[in-house]
Amino acid sequence: MSSSSSASKVCYNSECKEVKSEFPRKGWRLRTGEYCELCDRCYFAYEEGRFCETFHMNAAGWRCCESCGKRVHCGCIVSSHAFTLLDPGGIECMTCARKNYVMTSNPAWPTSMFFHSPLSERLKDLSTKNWTQLAGSGPVPWRQAPSLFNSSIPSSELHTRVPHEVDGSTGINKLNASERIFVSTLEKKKVEEFSERLMKVNLSIGTQQSLENGIGNPGINHEEKSSSCLNISQQSASLKEEPSTPQFVPYGSPSETNPQLGFTGTNLRPIAPLAKNYNGNGVESSGDNQIRNARPRVDARGRNQLLPRYWPRFTDQELQHISGDKNSVITPLFEKMLSASDAGRIGRLVLPKKCAEAYFPPISQPEGLPLKVQDSKGKEWIFQFRFWPNNNSRMYVLEGVTPCIQSMQLLAGDIVTFSRLEPEGKLVMGFRKASTSLQSDQENEANKTTNGVSAHAEVELADPSSWSNVDKSGYIAKEALEDKSLIPKKRKNSNLGSKSKRLRIENEDVIELKVTWEEAQGLLRPPANHVPTVVVIEGFEFEEYEDAPILGKPTIYATGRAGEKIQWVQCEDCFKWRKLPINALLPSKWTCSENSWDPERSLCSAAQELTTEQLQDLLPRCNTVASKKLKAAKQDPDNIEVLEGLDTLANLAILGEGESLPSSAQATTKHPRHRPGCSCIVCIQPPSGKGPKHKQTCTCNVCLTVKRRFRTLMMRREKKQSDKEAETTRRKQHKGQLLVVDKPEDDTLSYCNAGSSSPNQKIEILELSDDDLNMTKSSTSPFKGQIDLNIQPEREDELSPGSDSGGMMKLLHDATARYLRQQRLSSSGGSEKSSGNGSQRAASEAGGGEPLSNGVNLESSNVVNLESSNHDSSNDCPATLSIKPSASMTATG
DNA sequence: AAAACGCATGGTA
DNA sequence: GTACCATGCGTTT
């Protein structure tokens, strides 16, 4: 074996020496970072886990599985994926390990499942020539016997032992060093690093071919030694990798790791063990984030860790289901939320590059290979796994997935999961409907923000097909559900940004989101346990909450028999409609049990007061949500995406104003590029961070909303800053004068005069009298984690009212104006402008969308602007508005 | 003309 | 600044 696999013309397998083919297959990863190149025969042996069995039958280091007695070679890095180390000593083949895992379902188990890579690392070091990465398998897995869960070996012991177990190669010290550092600090960085690497791990079960021998592990000459080494490696590995993300909390040394990391039980999630590919190169301790067990990479560059969004999130049930009665072991590989393209008719499923390179066969030609995939029902599909050259990189796709996607009734936003079934080595494709996925995504988060549709019921009802419960989601997550029901979790964007938020909106949901602006407001509920701060703006009181409002349960307002005002609400569980007082404010999820107004109907078993006909009569009066729900209640009460804060408002408002919604076929998880004239919520919103800037004269709902809230927030800040200043501010506001206030310290809100950025960081606000528009300009100001609307000069044409096809803008304006008017009238009857649409009018006044000479044009400043980066436009005053997503407010009459 | 193909583009992380 | 990836869109079938 040569140190440079690619340099040689022959197979890397020293016992082969066959001339490599023109396109040599890549095997395990070498110290150099490259992958050894094998001849076809050896490659397949490697790929199928028969490598050692085939070539190293006579090597030392064979042990028997403590459970099934099967012989497994423990001293070979190539076989490291095939067994797991037991605390009491001995090893267990992965098949047994997996079984035990599934059976015991010990929450801590999953963590231990990740204690693989280190071993590989050790092995690598042990091996003087190479460290391997078995295709489709990972580093030596290690786990503790459930009963010995807390008896992990002290890291100190590990450290002291390590030197004895590894040879004196140079890499050892480095490894030990890094290990110590890791164990002792567990700094966040490491945590993150680990968590990422974790995902790369591919649990390789399997390869039950027991007899294996390290192909290039001269350093390990006898069983005992290798065994001990493995143990050590594993331990250290576990320790090293423990710092994982909450979702994959590695369970290493409970006594140290968990406490240090602060992981809690609720964070633990049973996740299928993943055999992790690990870069055993001790030299690059920080760069060992390569996928080890990953398949041979076409390109070593693909060794980076998988993004969390692709982490497989399997529950025991799912795994069990997949493995079924076949006694098979399932190895979760990755999952992906279907994009519109993926779910579209094109039939191409874009595969995350790293996933593709890690878990799918290496392909050197764009044409790729046909890949046989089995769905969770056992049906086999053949997709073309290929790639497109793309920016010096590759874009991997699975072609021909349409039939499969359709078979599973998947839509954009749903999640497909890829696993490997061992020992068959079959690729298994499962799925989770968006609703279920959402839950999964929120596993460590609250689901309190559900928008009114039962998250639990979704799983049951999401799939109208004959799929069993399990099948419905691919393999379902009963446990996940339980978790959610028991543990209040707060939903966060987590890995999913706003983009992903949109992704979660299924068609049904989108349709259900078709509520008017007023309705959207009506659905807003202050977040629990939050006391609003009441501020007065222009004589109107506003309740502000630090946290985003949540969407309340949609109800149907009606008049009771006695003429009293009532509202009808549908139970999340039984879908019966219950009558409630008109003033009842409901949480997003409401069930009969919460019907404190009518104890007799506080149970789902109680009959519905309304007849179907009566309800039907009511429906036209209610929004689409109710109507749709009535019709689909028994079918698919999928949850509506929980949109929070401004996003929610904006989306609802937009949708409510007649924005054409994507059809099922058009369901998109990621909006296409911004298109001229498109006024959808995507196009009118800037991407986070930089994004398109809204036109100065933009009066879209988003801008209006932002402006309004901005003003409110500004006012509050102002008020807090000083009474005097507040006095001045209010006075000036009412006079429609320019306000000057200090820039918020936290930069939550800031804007400037782009044309003449004020160094003093003063904020100027121009109020258009009583109008809704706030004329603002801002100087540069960094924004962090804020929603911002930017003027995007280059998109002015696109966003200009004139290009707004079909008066979408007008509708939005009207809706907003109506709402605001309503608010004002009900609150103080303030001097409202007679104009039906102040926003629009203001926009007109702003010069009909014409660029301002210097951004000082007050009328134009209604456009809030954000970042300093907007100064690219000469004349435009890229005023920027930024609002903390978390900050929200509800207006009260 | 429609569908499929595959590279290009650009938003996002 | 780079890489990824969703999807636009021109080209080919």
- Overall body shape: elongated
Mean pLDDT metric = 49
Number of helices: 30
Strand content: 5-15%
**Sheet having the most strands:** 7 strands, mixed
Distance, first to last CA: 80 Å
Q: How much helix, percentage-wise, in residues?
A: 25-40%
| Order of the strands making up the biggest sheet | 7-12-13-9-10-11-8
Number of domains as seen in the coordinates: 5
Total strand segments: 26
Rg (CA only): 30 Å
Going by helix content, strand content and strand pairing, the class is: alpha+beta
Q: Identify low-pLDDT runs.
A: 1-5, 101-304, 436-523, 545-550, 620-696, 735-816, 825-893
Describe this entry's structure for a reader.
The chain has 893 residues and is α+β, with helices and mostly antiparallel strands. It has five domains: 1-47, no CATH class; 56-259 and 277-288, no CATH class; 295-492, At1g16640 B3 domain (Beta Barrel); 517-656, no CATH class; 664-891, no CATH class. 30% of the residues lie in helices and 15% in strands. It has a seven-stranded mixed beta sheet with strand order 7-12-13-9-10-11-8. A hairpin with a 4-residue loop joins β9 and β10 (380-390). α5 (117-126) packs antiparallel against α7, α21 packs antiparallel against α24 and α24 packs antiparallel against α26. The radius of gyration is 30 Å and the shape is elongated. It starts with 24 loop residues before the first strand and ends with a strand. Residues 1-5, 101-304, 436-523, 545-550, 620-696, 735-816 and 825-893 have low confidence and may be disordered. The protein binds a DNA duplex (13 and 13 nucleotides) through α12, β8, β10 and β11.
